[in-house]
Amino acid sequence: MCKIILSRENLFKFNMKENYTFNFIVFFTFFLISSYSHAAITVLGKGDATLCYHGAKFGYENRSIINKCKNALNDNSLSPKNKAATYVNLGIIYNNSSQPDKALLTLNKGKEYDGVRSEVALNSGNSYYLKRNYNKALKLYEKSFELGIKDKSAVFFNIGLVYEKLNNIEKAIFHYKKAIELKPEFLTYFEKKVQLVQLGKW
Do residues 156 and 120 share a domain? Predict the structure, then answer.
């Protein structure tokens, strides 16, 4: 894999002033509606569980999609695997709708199933990030690594967000670079932010 080297100037060419404070909007709308910062779990088929999965993947947050998820969880014919996935996906939707406490309650039900524990850890970390409990978020992101999370790029990116909130810019850049090495699409985020700052819209 080709290593991508990014300087601080290329990553953070912002209107910074003296203290180099960087203000990130929570998960930035672009990433809230992508599959990068969370871990939706695929459910195949045509039922409510599948609709819930698509809602999590594409960033839906309305009452209708939440009800689809709840209907799926009340379906006795839903397999244990898909039930676990639906708990995680509903948790993501609650996070997307800025309801991290509801997300945590839902995700906690999902962690009873072995196959989704790494995704539960990642998305629970997102909940604590939304609650501004950055140290707890960091612990859960690191736990998702220990549990074998597949999308490591999402975890590296989110850890970068946490370190930035904690004003540890060197560690933030280190983890952003790790995320970009695994998923170069993340570079688009930084390029878009620079453009917005240059236009005076950030």
Answer: no
